[in-house]
Amino acid sequence: MKKLIAIILLLTLNSCYLLKENGIEFTIENKSDFPIENVKFSTSEKLAVMEFDKIEPNQSVSEFLSMKNNKSDGSYTLEFTRSNGIKESRGFGYYTNGGALDRWVEFEIQNDTITRKFSGTGY
After folding, report:
1. What is the CA radius of gyration of the chain?
2. Domains, the chain, with CATH or none
3. Which of 18, 24, 66, 102 is the most exposed place for a label (fewest CB within 10 A)?
4. 51-to-61, 62, 73, 83, 97 alpha-carbon distances in Å
5. Which domain of life is it from (predicted)?
């Protein structure tokens, strides 16, 4: 009887893990002196794209990028336009077989650079 309860418990915990949606949480924080516009965060497969018209200085946005349709290996792409009209497009991180390897990523946009921090194993 104890083995049966243990098996049911394991199956229940495993099913909760399987129901978790595939994707990655992200935050984009504008630490520059100027607004950034046409902000897009996506996977390199571009099957889902999160878009924001504008992020003002010292503001941030947070969202969840669903990767339920991704099937191959790739990276994450962050694109935006600086106030001087310069378009930035950079690839970051890595996912495999359409699955996120991390739980979240934080981007910090500065006047002359972009920093990022990935964390939390997604598997």
Report:
1. 18
2. 22-117 (2.60.40.2890)
3. 18
4. 10, 11, 22, 17, 24
5. Bacteria
